[in-house]
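Teaching note: in complex prediction, the entire set of molecules is handled at once rather than each chain in isolation. The prompt given to students was simply: 'Predict the structure of this complex.' The entities are:
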Amino acid sequence: MLTFAQFGAGRIGAIHAANLAAAGNATLRYVVDVNTTAARALADQYGARVTNLGTALGDPEVDAVIIASSTDTHADLAIAAARAGKAIFCEKPIDLSLKRVDACIAAVKKARVPMFVGFNRRFDPSFAALHRRIGAGDIGAVEQVVVTSRDPGLPPLSYLKVSGGQFRDMTIHDFDMARWLLGEEPAEIFAYGSCLVDPAVAKVGDTDSVMIVMKTATGKLAHINNSRRAAYGYDQRIEVHGAKGRLLAGNQTPTTVELADANAVSADKPLHFFLERYAAAYRIELATFVDAVVNQRPLPVTVEDGRQAIVLAEAAAKSLRTGRSVKL
Amino acid sequence: MLTFAQFGAGRIGAIHAANLAAAGNATLRYVVDVNTTAARALADQYGARVTNLGTALGDPEVDAVIIASSTDTHADLAIAAARAGKAIFCEKPIDLSLKRVDACIAAVKKARVPMFVGFNRRFDPSFAALHRRIGAGDIGAVEQVVVTSRDPGLPPLSYLKVSGGQFRDMTIHDFDMARWLLGEEPAEIFAYGSCLVDPAVAKVGDTDSVMIVMKTATGKLAHINNSRRAAYGYDQRIEVHGAKGRLLAGNQTPTTVELADANAVSADKPLHFFLERYAAAYRIELATFVDAVVNQRPLPVTVEDGRQAIVLAEAAAKSLRTGRSVKL
Amino acid sequence: MLTFAQFGAGRIGAIHAANLAAAGNATLRYVVDVNTTAARALADQYGARVTNLGTALGDPEVDAVIIASSTDTHADLAIAAARAGKAIFCEKPIDLSLKRVDACIAAVKKARVPMFVGFNRRFDPSFAALHRRIGAGDIGAVEQVVVTSRDPGLPPLSYLKVSGGQFRDMTIHDFDMARWLLGEEPAEIFAYGSCLVDPAVAKVGDTDSVMIVMKTATGKLAHINNSRRAAYGYDQRIEVHGAKGRLLAGNQTPTTVELADANAVSADKPLHFFLERYAAAYRIELATFVDAVVNQRPLPVTVEDGRQAIVLAEAAAKSLRTGRSVKL
Amino acid sequence: MLTFAQFGAGRIGAIHAANLAAAGNATLRYVVDVNTTAARALADQYGARVTNLGTALGDPEVDAVIIASSTDTHADLAIAAARAGKAIFCEKPIDLSLKRVDACIAAVKKARVPMFVGFNRRFDPSFAALHRRIGAGDIGAVEQVVVTSRDPGLPPLSYLKVSGGQFRDMTIHDFDMARWLLGEEPAEIFAYGSCLVDPAVAKVGDTDSVMIVMKTATGKLAHINNSRRAAYGYDQRIEVHGAKGRLLAGNQTPTTVELADANAVSADKPLHFFLERYAAAYRIELATFVDAVVNQRPLPVTVEDGRQAIVLAEAAAKSLRTGRSVKL
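The expected output is the structure of the full assembly:
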């Protein structure tokens, strides 16, 4: 039984707390959030206590922490948790600044605690099957990866201003997917970006539509296309092309119902957004973390994975500014 | 908060107990099973107590019962629960004998307790969408229903011997689907049946492969095809044809992954069997029962639904014997 | 080079004439039709001459005839062609009366000429693949066949009056598909029928919606569902279930385009009707006939096949009247 | 009736000659090819004569030419045909050198003859539907285009040596699709390329695997991925993302048959290569050309389209060399 303190009682925090309760081998002791109403509500629902950072990390019976607070607090909380000897489950990104990411990694390594970065898509049953089947040789050597990742709608500009930009906030998951499925680090990256959804996005210095290409040292290629708005819902698909064939993972739908009428044959739109699409992924992700910590097994997603995604985001931003391929 | 006693701690009982625990507005107080080991395990997992029928029904704080024991006990337990004034959630079928079904219904009506029969497929998100969209007029007036329902593999002969026959044991769900989607009672039924999977099935007086057609008073038509063995898994599909179009609900798969290689383009087989395919249906079904009882709303599946499915099963068996259409 | 006379210059005649022209090893010498305008137009298009029955059959250079005239003339024309020693390609049905079918078969056998009945669906690439793959053992022994066959819209009542009824006119193709894919003759048949599309159909003594079940001597089962109206086009699908798996052949669409928008994910309706859906089948069918005659190989569809479909249609009609399974 | 001379009697020439014969309003008078055996065979099949360039272009009854000879002869033949006042149907590319393309265009403009460049994919029913439906507003303003275009297998190295490189030989079609569907010229282009299929390709100075991104002046984005080898056949898919939704055009298959067995649910591979996949496109393309010339309507594909694709291919090659975005 792993005892947890959780930082953050918002939307994603609620998911982790629910999954923790269902995991069977974990318990939530503390909830910490500056929004004490949210903290209280979550704590009450799962029989936990509301407390502050010091108490949570000072309690020797707390084995692990979930960091699901705002992005700018991730690194400090992870460093504090590392110093307190807690196992760390940290939402992505570790930080928007590579410098602070590195400081965090240093603290974690020094403390020799396990730290997991929340790349939940690796635990999506379909994307996980891509990875497993590549490993099983179903398509031979991987040659090209194509990631389609499109959100249902533009977040508020107030969010975009503090998001770190589309690459760090949105593409970061796709960078992780590309790296993971290529089985090799990108050695070069190039990006185009535009504001096609809303010109107001340009005013806060961001893009809403991007296309990226990457190349590894051995010449493997990857493409990512992103948009902040897909009128039909959350478009999350991946293709992997190899020497012997191709694997695709498509969207998921609420039902399998198909209507044929005088107009067309029509089926459900994809599940609306990440909470619906990645519900299973969040559950499996947390269970995997708990099992790894309990059984002292290596974590399947590491701080280096978290760091590398930020490196790619920074390089993509540089390519966007310079019109050149950026070497990594 | 609805307090439950549950009869039956087997495979289906375990599902109901888990869904009860997750429902949020229900609690399991007692587990009753002749297999005390199973009862103990289930009770321990959900903080319930193992007890006997008398104690469970005698406890005035018990509001409702779940009957998930062997089929031959359903009617007696339901009658006892009705007399004790408990709301009843009963697995299908109420009984294999129409006479006992009627006795049970009489007891329930006399006691004025709500009784729900576990036609879980009505709560499958895809089949439920069929029903909802028919009601919304998506395909105009319903004309024909085609139900494909095929199990992954033959159960043991020992099970078949006490199952009441393929119509009562397996087709019963499909009878309910057909009635529900036709929106009208079948007025006639005809059936062919064979032993194509295993000749041993004939020796216990049963079939393993059947095709049924039904007709309502206004001429609407329905077809059901069943097999006890589908090599590729659990094949559960429904088509509804109407004046303005057609609705289909297809199978569900573990992932959306598709492999294209030198041989073919291949995708996942359907989910293996009812526990996987109808996991959501079982959850929604129980939550619906709890909500209906708590809020004193009518139950969406009634004892009359349970009775009518048995009536159709008996008529199908008669048609099979006589080679004639049986009027209902 | 096979020289043809063709009887009938209507819609289906035009298709056969065009396919003959494209076949490469056949030529159309004569067109015979009571509608001389239609005959003239078709003859001009393909460099043929308009003539009468006597001249066409009297010409020793005519090797073969295509009978694509109205149904009531098929048998007489086939008998005359047989006596003249011509190879015969005859549209289905041979005749609506089994007695006249038998007279025709007798004449053909006596003349020892090859006679082919136009069950074009056997040459549809998808349905042909079902048959070939059953033969290759892809699904083991066949157990159940489900034929869905629904027309886009009701023909004029004037047509229905002379059509011989839905079983002889429409289901006849599905009877042939079922027999062909079962690999065994149906030994029993049962049918329900209704007028759901238009009550006027009942006034001419016909049905517009039918469901049929059949059983072979070894217990294999088949189901056919028909409607004279599918709002979304021509619905032509077949499922074959076997001991090791299932083969499906689905509808065909004009394009592969899929639209995802705020409402749904929608694709093309099926090809509208038989001229579009079975264009390839008609082409391959005629080429197969020509090749078989030229190379003196056995015909893949025989007069016995034509007869047996009529036998099933008559038995279905009898079952509809009597409410009983009809033995064959 | 349009009278044609055709240059080139190879694989693609055979297709055009067959489509001409079936068009109904065109006739093939001459075939010219240095391979006189091939010329003879083709001419015989369609009742044409084998001749030389001078005779073909000197015949005043020849209205139009089809240029389907080797790429290096396209420009010279087009210039000669233009001077002789013939309408020109020219296979892509006009030439591998932009300078010679421009000389050809100048000659055509001077002669005021219509010249069509064989971008057959614009006539593929599915891709044509994308274009038509974008125009109809089905997805609002276009934002991103993703072109997947992968050949079944590597051509011989001898071919690659004279092909002009992957961009000019293979991607050229995809450049045309991207321009056509974006509805706006790319203003910038970036490309990565590798030899992943066969290292021998690098030795002849070419790539076999490329990924390209492009951006228009208003910020619309396009991606193309190419491989010279897709183990499962010819992978030709296009996605267009717009403000209101997404259109996809998928692969086409020989049949709609689907097998479900103990391993998987599997369907046909895509049609093998361009002759199969684009059979309808070739037919419609030529008919469109003939109709436009006969009725003096503007051609739907122009020499400027042919030129612009070469411009993009040259810019992609430059980007590949320099690692920079190339402005157009």
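Point out the following to students. The mean pLDDT of chain D is 97. The first strand of chain D starts at residue 2 and ends at 7.
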